[in-house]
Specification:
single chain; 254 residues; alpha/beta; 9-stranded parallel β-sheet
């Protein structure tokens, strides 16, 4: 069965961020991801993970947390200089934590100039960090209106244009369901580009046990595809996180 990681930006929010690592470990997770960990010293985060034997799967670019601000700007033409400056900052943080992936957020933008900017910035980032795995993720327009990368075909077009060995697709099954109407079919079509997976129920984005996505079948197809990476639980728990982990205990026990 797949290997599951806990997204600590979504799970265990009953606790301060630095306490969530131990909570995840106590529930059986051996890897985590944190979308925007930059408010915490990298040394403190790294020490927590080392003490608990946890791996860091992924962080988002750019820092700092976008609360009240832009959700990335890799596709925003007038912000290329800022993107490159903040990418370097995020890269140092990710390397200190031993993060496996960096997800580069596109931001709000549309049109040909935005796509050219996005492609150019991604190509630059791939060369700037040749040893780091970089990802881009289509995000549905309901959750993030105006977000540039809101379509899987567009993501593939960009990936083909950049053609970098360390740049791939981040496949969030929840977003895939909202965008395409069929997350399983989307997986079958785009799996060759995927280097990281995230999951949540659809359409409410709660635990991956009910809703429009047949997760037992999805996990079967992921296994069948030969994917060996992490699958991160990135959902909004209906109640306390621990109370909704039956799905995790069931699948990891198979």
């Amino acid at each position: 069965m797949p290997r599951f990681a806990a997204n600590l930006s979504f799970l265990f929010k009953e606790y301060p961020l630095l306490e969530r690592f131990a909570e995840a470990k106590s529930c059986g997770f051996t890897a985590v991801e944190v979308l925007f960990p930059y408010d915490e010293p990298a040394s403190e985060v790294a020490q927590r993970m080392a003490d608990l034997g946890l791996d860091m799967v992924l962080i988002n670019v750019p820092p700092p947390n976008y609360t009240g601000g832009q959700r990335g700007f890799a596709a925003v033409p007038e912000l290329e200089e800022r993107f490159r400056r903040d990418f370097k900052r995020a890269l140092r943080y990710a390397q200190f934590l031993g993060a496996q992936h960096m997800h580069i957020m596109a931001g709000k933008a549309k049109g040909e100039a935005a796509q050219e900017t996005y492609t150019r910035n991604l190509a630059w980032a791939a060369k700037e960090a040749p040893e780091m795995s970089l990802t881009i993720e289509p995000i549905n327009g309901q959750d993030m209106p105006g977000y540039f990368l809101d379509d899987f075909d567009l993501a593939v077009e960009v990936l083909d244009a950049v053609d970098a060995p360390n740049l791939g697709l981040q496949f969030d099954a929840y977003h895939a369901q909202i965008i395409t109407g069929d997350a399983l079919a989307a997986w079958t079509r785009y799996a060759p580009y995927v280097r990281h997976i995230q999951i949540a129920g659809a359409p409410e984005r709660h635990e991956p046990v009910q809703g429009l996505i047949d997760y037992p079948e999805f996990f079967r197809r992921v296994d069948e595809s030969g994917y060996t990476g992490w699958i991160s639980a990135e959902y909004m728990p209906k109640a306390r996180t621990k109370d909704g982990l039956d799905w995790f205990n069931d699948f990891r026990g198979r």
